[in-house]
Design brief:
The structure holds three protein chains of three kinds.
Chain A lengths: L5 E10 L2 E11 L4 E5 L6 H8 L7 E6 L2 E2 L5 H7 L1 E4 L11 H13 L11 H13 L15 H14 L4 E5 L7 H18 L2 E5 L3 H7 L2 E6 L2 E6 L1 H6 L1 H8 L2
Parallel strand pairs in A: 3-8, 3-9, 6-7, 7-8
Antiparallel strand pairs in A: 1-2, 1-4, 4-5, 9-10
Chain B lengths: L1 H33 L6 H21 L7 H23 L9 H23 L8 H5 L2 E4 L2 E4 H24 L1 H11 L1 H6 L4 H23 L9 H16 L4 H21 L6 H13 L14
Antiparallel strand pairs in B: 1-2
Helix pairs in contact in B: 1-6, 1-9, 1-10, 1-11, 2-3, 2-4, 2-9, 2-10, 3-9, 6-7, 10-11, 10-12, 11-12
Chain C lengths: L2 H20 L4 H22 L8 H18 L4 H23 L4 H21 L1 H4 L5 E2 L12 H28 L1 H11 L1 H5 L5 H27 L1 E2 L6 H14 L6 H20 L3 H15 L3 H10 L2 H4 L22
Antiparallel strand pairs in C: 1-2
Helix pairs in contact in C: 1-7, 2-7, 2-10, 2-11, 2-12, 3-4, 3-10, 4-10, 7-8, 7-10, 8-10, 11-12, 11-13, 11-14
Classes of the chains: A alpha/beta, B mainly alpha, C mainly alpha.
């Protein structure tokens, strides 16, 4: 049996009286696209926050490629190969989309410099490739604060992709993206993840997205992983249908 | 002899802490509700002291009872807080609530420069000293030490009254609860029909009165000099930040901590007395960046 | 950084040098303006990260005193040594203070800097035997890169040196702003969370900016001390820090050269205002800061750029663009 890429053991965290996670055990295997579904406020984003070091759990551990990353800072976890796209896009608003991308690519490749200008031509090409993959290349020269909501989401994913992670965590990746666009974008994104050997975890409310792109689904409810398994089994489960999908 | 020194240092520290607390609690109240750190806050302290001194001189010059100098201290605080406080809030702060935090800081800093200059224009740079309120009440013996009643009884009593009064006002009265509601969630308060701009004005005036009261009460105990506002601003910030900005009861405790720390330094390491408050703040913030009683809030992402 | 921009800055520097050459009475004024401009340049660097320091004068003072001590210990010295010692002292102090203050932002950053500068001020005033107390530290006129000069020649050379250093610092800061650390510094202002999530330490980025900003201030402090033959506690007083912030905002905090435009205008007005407005100087400054923030937030250079930029350049935003705004568009309102 291969070692899981990400392994979470006995994870617990609570805020005041609310239990966001309690004794959660979950792992992500290489090559997997794991969807996490569940009602709002169940702690799905908290789970991503813990995996990336934004929050510390009360108890439990997170291992990435066999290494304990439980209390590392986000930047150290990022440098180990976990990138994240956010529910609320996190962009450098004053800078252009291109500068956003180049900062990410530069940070991945080399230590930063106080003298060399941001972005070599190789980095610029790489940024352009990723932006066109996500169909936002037209916005490259625009300041991020001018972008429409859906575009922001995609640029946020582009930045995460530019970090060339082993594991990409996404929080409702296409919420706010026009429905005419989102499947086209996700098709190329998921294909690109496969060719690059990147595994992914995505929090999702849209069951059609789950069916199309996940090869495993975990149901998060009341701070626990209620069930996990292949998409069809999970989505057909009567209890899941009743508690999560709502019909 | 050492135990006497210890006692004197403790009494000094308590008297001083009472004054610092009054200023710091105003700063922290304004911040808690308006989310603006008022750098001009130190000017209210200085103005309170100068106005109180002028009133004191006026009372001494006329033939009326010197006991009137006590109400004069309160009157000075009220005048400065209401007149200058409401002017600053209405003319200046109202225009910047939706601006970047760094711009808000710059604007209150500019207000500080203006008030500091105005104060020098009116009162000049020569020191004032009006000790009538200190002398009238005489002294008291505490453990063999003679200390002024004003500093060791009146000042701490006023500080405790303000602390208790603030608690009662904020928790038990409608106005107080309205202020708390705005501090908790500005938008929600607006949605349920609270007049937020008016709450801001009231809060700012109350906070300013507290700073001016600190100044007017301090005026009998010290020479009134240019620069006293800056020192007190930074000190009260040290107190408020060590407690956690917005924490009223916490500010009382850190004021005592910093007051005692400073007076200990005055007796045992006089060259360090200015440094001690900042050292305490630095240590607290290194260990708990949100202050001793503050809570850390993660940004939603 | 375009060639046009370099030509413009060099031309401005040469013009200033020519003024100093032809009009001896402008020399003192120009050295003061350049030294305060250098300190304000430090504020511009911090504003790039969305931070403001109300205690930046501490680096201005510490470099002046360090240069003074060096001069005293060596029994007179060279301007190059003074600059080296001053810069080194400010770099060390900014590293130590910086390690602490870069953990904080906004209010805390500004106020902690103010607190540190006040500590320095009281140390300079209190330790009389070492620092000369409130009278300050006298220093003899240094040699100018090995040349021992008379008063007039020294002043002229000092102006040239100040202008050259101001030009060099402006160009260096422009290079820094365009570099990856410079871009990361700007990113602190809009989204520190994302910065951490691309694997960059926001604190390290800000610390580098802080040290660079202290060094530009340090150059200014040494120049002013050399001009006046004196380093005094007022170099570190909060009003001095306020002046630097004022100059940066006046010139236009988005432009490194703005610091010097701001300083020239500020010192120029001050010379003429001193006669009739000396007593209300800070009051006027305060009102002008408020006026600029409310009505011309991009400062003098920003106004000039808006006025003189060619129409083509102003409309460089492609058609169909969303108008520039700080607020995020409402969710789902503008899907392509």
């Amino acid at each position: 049996m291969t070692m899981p890429l990400l392994q979470v053991k006995d994870l617990s965290i609570r805020f005041g009286g609310i239990i966001a996670a309690e004794d959660v055990n979950l792992s992500v295997n290489p090559g997997e696209n794991l969807a996490i579904i569940g009602p709002n406020g169940a702690g799905k984003t908290t789970f991503l926050n813990i995996c990336t070091g934004y929050l510390s759990p009360v108890s439990g551990t997170v291992h990435f490629m066999g290494r304990d990353i439980t209390r590392l800072a986000p930047r150290n976890i990022t440098r180990l190969g976990i990138a994240r796209a956010f529910q609320i896009p996190q962009l450098f608003l004053e800078q252009t989309v291109n500068e956003n991308m180049l900062l990410a690519i530069t940070a991945r490749h080399t230590s930063l410099s106080t003298i060399r200008p941001l972005g070599t031509s190789a980095f610029r090409d790489e940024a352009a490739d990723i932006l066109s993959l996500l169909k936002v290349a037209d916005f490259a020269a625009r300041p991020a604060q001018e972008l429409p909501e859906g575009t922001r989401k995609l640029v946020d994913i582009a930045i995460a992709l530019a970090l060339q992670p082993r594991l990409l965590l996404m929080d409702e990746p296409t919420s706010g993206v026009a429905s005419s666009e989102k499947f086209a974008v996700m098709d190329v994104l998921v294909a690109a993840l496969a060719t690059r050997g990147v595994s992914s975890v995505f929090v999702e409310h849209d069951m059609e997205m789950v069916t199309r792109y996940a090869n495993r689904v975990a149901v998060w409810n009341g701070g626990r992983v209620q069930k996990s398994g292949p998409p069809q089994d999970i989505l057909d489960d009567p209890e899941v249908r009743r508690t999560v999908i709502g019909h | 002899m050492t135990s006497d020194l210890l006692l004197i240092a403790a009494l000094d520290g308590i008297a001083y802490a009472a004054l610092v607390f009054l200023v710091a609690v105003g700063l922290t109240l304004i911040f808690g509700v308006l989310r603006v750190l008022n750098i001009a806050h130190g000017s209210f302290y200085a103005l309170g002291a100068y106005v109180a001194a002028s009133l004191g001189i006026g009372i001494a010059a006329s033939k009326i009872s010197p006991w009137l100098s006590y109400p004069a201290l309160a009157v000075a605080a009220a005048i400065v807080g209401i007149v200058v406080g409401s002017a600053i809030e209405r003319l200046l702060l109202q225009r910047i609530y939706d601006k970047e935090e760094v711009l808000q800081l710059l604007v209150t800093f500019a207000a500080f420069m203006i008030l500091d200059n105005a104060q020098r224009l009116i009162w000049g740079v020569q020191p004032y000293f009006v000790a009538t309120p200190l002398q009238l009440l005489g002294n008291v013996q505490i453990g063999g030490i003679t200390y002024t009643v004003y500093q060791i009884i009146v000042l701490p009593a006023v500080a405790l009254l303000v602390l208790a009064g603030m608690r009662l006002f904020l928790r038990r009265t409608v106005s107080g609860r309205v202020i708390l509601a705005v501090a908790e969630d500005r938008e929600a308060a607006r949605a349920i029909g609270i007049n937020v701009p008016r709450v801001y004005l009231w809060t700012f005036v109350i906070g300013s009165i507290l700073a001016s009261l600190g100044g007017s009460l301090a005026s009998p105990t010290t020479s009134i000099l240019p620069g006293m506002g800056t020192d007190m601003l930074v000190l009260s910030f040290a107190v408020a930040a060590s407690a956690g900005l917005g924490r009223i009861e916490g500010a009382a405790i850190t004021a005592l901590l910093i007051g005692l720390g400073r007076s200990a330094a005055v007796y045992w390491a006089p060259e360090l007395d200015v440094l001690v408050p900042y050292l305490i703040m630095t240590l607290v913030l290194l260990v708990k960046p949100q202050g001793l009683f503050g809570t850390l809030q993660a940004r939603r992402i | 950084m375009g060639a046009r921009n370099i030509v413009l800055l060099v031309t401005a520097a040469v013009l200033l040098a020519a003024v100093a050459w032809l009009l001896p009475w402008t020399r003192t004024f120009l050295v003061i303006a350049m030294s305060k401009g250098l300190a304000a340049l430090g504020i511009v660097i911090l504003l790039r990260a969305g931070q403001v320091s109300f205690g930046h004068a501490m680096f201005f003072a510490v470099s002046a005193y360090a240069a003074g001590f060096a001069s005293r210990m060596l029994g007179g010295t060279d301007i190059a040594v003074m600059l080296a010692v001053g810069i080194a002292a400010a770099a060390v102090l900014s590293l130590v203070v910086g390690l602490f203050v870069v953990r904080y932002r906004q209010i805390f950053f500004g106020m902690l800097n103010l607190a540190f500068s006040m500590v320095l001020y009281s140390i300079l005033e209190k330790f009389f035997e070492i620092t000369g107390g409130s009278d300050g530290l006298r220093l003899s006129r240094p040699s100018m890169f090995g040349l021992v000069l008379q008063r007039n020649d020294f002043d002229l050379m000092l102006v040239f040196l100040s202008i050259a250093l101001a030009l060099g610092a402006t160009l260096a800061v422009q290079v820094y702003f365009a570099s990856s650390y410079g871009q990361a510094l700007r990113a602190i202002k809009s989204n520190e969370t994302r910065l951490e999530y691309i694997g960059v330490s926001a604190r390290l980025v800000l610390l580098i900016g802080y040290v660079v900003s202290a060094v530009t201030g340090a150059i200014g402090g040494v120049l002013l001390a050399a001009l006046q033959g004196l380093a005094s506690p007022s170099f570190s007083y909060w009003i001095q820090s306020g002046e630097f912030v004022f100059i940066a905002i006046l010139g236009g905090s988005a432009f490194p050269a703005g610091a010097f435009v701001g300083a020239l205008v500020y010192e120029g007005v001050r010379i003429y205002a001193a006669a009739f407005a000396n007593d209300i100087w800070e009051l006027v400054l305060g009102l002008v800061i408020i006026g600029i923030i409310l009505f011309a937030p991009r400062g003098l250079v920003g106004l000039a750029v808006e006025t003189f930029a060619s129409p083509r350049k102003r409309e460089a935003v492609p058609d169909g663009s969303v108008p520039m705004t700080n607020a995020a568009p409402a969710k789902g309102s503008a899907e392509q």
